[in-house]
From TrEMBL:
Organism (species): Sphaerochaeta halotolerans
Record keyword Chloroplast present: no
GO molecular function, one term: 4 iron, 4 sulfur cluster binding
Protein name: PAS domain-containing protein
Record Pfam families: Fe_hyd_lg_C, Fer4_10, FeS, PAS_8
């Protein structure tokens, strides 16, 4: 089965933004592509949100769900309470739409949340009013504890998540043969469907639901008008409507729906959201082990209303307000709401996860912590490979995606990163290669900026235009950088022409009784321009020119033999022109000839 989050390799662009954004660095960069590592991923979906090239994808389950709904079995929809913040119309319209999609019934996941609340309160009553558990409501937090804080696994809630409890409760009411499909804003719920089949069977995102409605040509605005005209077309929620537990998707909503919610000081429970805050809390617990309160930990900042596939065009304040008003309407409306099931809750407390794990299946084994145990010598060696030979070179710039150079070195040792990810290393290597090229190339080279100041040059350039008969060292060359190029090169105005063109231009420059072949090229358009100065009056170049032109003469003469007599006169004229150019090449310019550029013919 495809991982819930995967990378489309052909679309990955080497930006490492997903590495920077991943709270647990579960991204492996291999051959330049950033791949999600299944065993390390906690399914928060942040990499999907921030990937600029949309290379991170969410597994689509819509086609399988559509077949599932059409299978002839009774299929129930478990609808997340965050839907009130996602869809700008009444829930009644959405229930009608889901029924038209083929669901046998629609039930609120908040029913399972109420059962979880009831289990927590029942446990607290028998334990001096306390329940020092970490909530299992957020599957991302559960994955984070299991994979990165294994010492805290025993502090996870003893009852399954609200969705798993809801699925189990629907099966208890309507039979084990029914199907359950969850619809909500969470990618990690797909993991619950994968790991505990049937609890639920499938999990769809709101994006997938919208795609389904569009495919079936179901218009929610039109349904809203129908419901307004005749409310009797709205099917009843099964087994009935949920109450205060519909506030679950808001940070603190779980606690507010418990009896502890009436305590303004929250002395028995704490609500925290956002990956940084959650990670800090878990790290503190692992070090101190002093937690005595119930912890409502949610990976998404602000709660599930800001899930990874929730609407991005609506503010958190608006979403929270919509959720709060919806919950208040449930409490104040004179309609039956779910009040719990004491016998089922007793089974939850007694059996825990055994209610959703079949006898012939094994619950997922906790994955060991990914804290590396490399020696200091190994890390130091890796740092040297990354070009960090001492502490001063550890810039900790974060360009690679890791918080420090040492973290990057550990990731490299773990096989999660490549040396090419180090921006400073690659820049140094590129600079070093450019320096070697500039210093060894047998022609004069200069690079200037848009102020016509020298950015870089080599000794051959200074020997041509600086009247030097010796070579300068690197530190001495640095003194030249920043000087105006007009101090060295006559007719420097030609540099300005190159700033408006990306084409390579060549000229022949007559300068102080020598001929120079000049090649202008753009290094960075409208910012940096380079020029190569090649002395074509040197004996070596003269010989090469003579050989080339002589070969041209011979070749043309051979071709002439094969042509008709009428072309002999034309060829003779060309030969005369070519030989005259040879004479011009070796001709010493008269002392009175002016210096300047001559456009080279291509």
């Amino acid at each position: 089965m495809i991982h819930p989050i995967f990378t489309e390799l052909t679309e990955c662009r080497d930006c490492y933004k997903c590495v920077r954004g991943c709270p647990v660095k579960a991204i492996q960069v291999k051959d330049g592509s950033a791949v999600v590592v299944k065993d390390r991923c906690i399914y928060c979906g942040h990499c999907v949100d921030i990937c600029p090239s949309h290379a991170k994808k969410i597994r689509g389950d819509l086609s399988r769900v559509r077949q599932f709904v059409q299978s002839g079995r009774k299929i129930f929809c478990s609808l997340a309470p965050s839907c009130v913040a996602e869809f700008p119309f009444s829930i009644d319209s959405l229930v009608v739409a889901l029924t038209r999609l083929g669901f046998s019934g629609v039930s609120e996941t908040a029913i399972g949340a109420h059962l979880v609340n009831q289990a927590i309160e029942m446990y607290a009553e028998s334990h001096e009013g306390t329940c020092p558990w970490i909530s299992s409501a957020c599957p991302t937090v559960v994955q984070m504890v299991k994979k990165y804080y294994p010492s805290l696994i025993n502090q996870l809630s003893k009852v399954p998540s609200p969705l798993q409890c809801h699925s189990a409760y629907l099966r208890a009411l309507y039979g084990q043969e029914i199907g359950v499909v969850f619809i909500g804003p969470c990618i990690a719920k797909k993991v619950e469907a994968d790991q505990t089949p049937g609890y639920p069977d499938f999990a769809l995102t709101y994006e997938e639901l919208n795609a389904w409605l569009l495919a079936e040509q179901i218009d929610l605005d039109m349904i809203e008008a129908e419901v307004t005209a005749d409310s009797s077309i709205v099917p009843s929620l099964v087994p009935c409507r949920a109450g205060k537990s519909t506030l679950y998707p808001v940070e603190g909503g779980m606690i507010a729906s418990l009896k502890w919610g009436s305590d303004p000081f929250q002395t028995h429970a704490v609500a925290i959201s956002g990956m940084n805050q959650v990670a800090g809390t878990l790290s503190g617990m692992e070090k101190e082990d002093l937690n005595t309160a119930f912890l409502e930990l949610l990976a998404c900042e602000g709660g599930c209303i800001n899930g990874p596939v929730s609407s991005q065009g609506r503010s958190s304040a608006t979403k929270k307000s919509l959720s709060s008003r919806y919950t208040r309407s449930r409490i104040t409306d004179r309609v039956p709401i779910f009040n719990g099931d004491a016998s089922f809750v007793a089974k939850l407390l007694d059996g825990g996860y055994s209610l959703i794990v079949k006898n012939n299946e094994q619950e997922e084994k906790p994955v060991s912590s990914f804290i590396s145990s490399h020696s200091k010598e190994e890390i130091d060696q890796a740092l040297k490979l990354l070009g960090k030979r001492d502490a001063a070179e550890e810039l900790n710039c974060g360009g690679c995606g890791y918080n420090s150079c040492r973290e990057m070195a550990v990731a490299y040792l773990d096989g999660m990163a490549e040396p090419e990810m180090c921006v400073t290393k690659m820049r140094k290597e590129a600079q070093s290669k450019m320096d070697v090229l500039l210093r060894t190339i047998p022609v004069g080279v200069v690079i200037v900026d848009d102020q016509l100041q020298i950015v870089d040059c080599n000794n051959n350039f200074l020997k041509l235009f600086g009247d030097l008969d010796f070579s300068l060292g690197p530190s001495q060359l640095n003194l030249v950088f920043g000087l105006p190029v007009k101090r060295f090169v006559p007719f420097y105005e030609k540099f300005m022409d190159q700033f408006t063109s990306s084409m390579v231009r060549q000229y022949r420059l007559h300068y102080e009784d020598t001929f120079l072949k000049v090649t202008f090229f753009s290094v960075e358009k409208q910012h940096l321009v380079g020029a190569l100065f090649e002395d074509i009056t040197t004996p070596t170049v003269r010989r090469e020119t003579v050989v080339k032109k002589a070969e041209d003469v011979i070749q043309r003469s051979l071709e002439t033999v094969q042509k008709i007599a009428s072309l002999l006169g034309e060829n003779a004229a060309e030969t005369e022109i070519m030989l005259n150019s040879l004479i011009d090449t070796f001709k010493v310019p008269p002392s009175g000839e002016q210096d300047g550029y001559t456009q080279e013919e291509s």
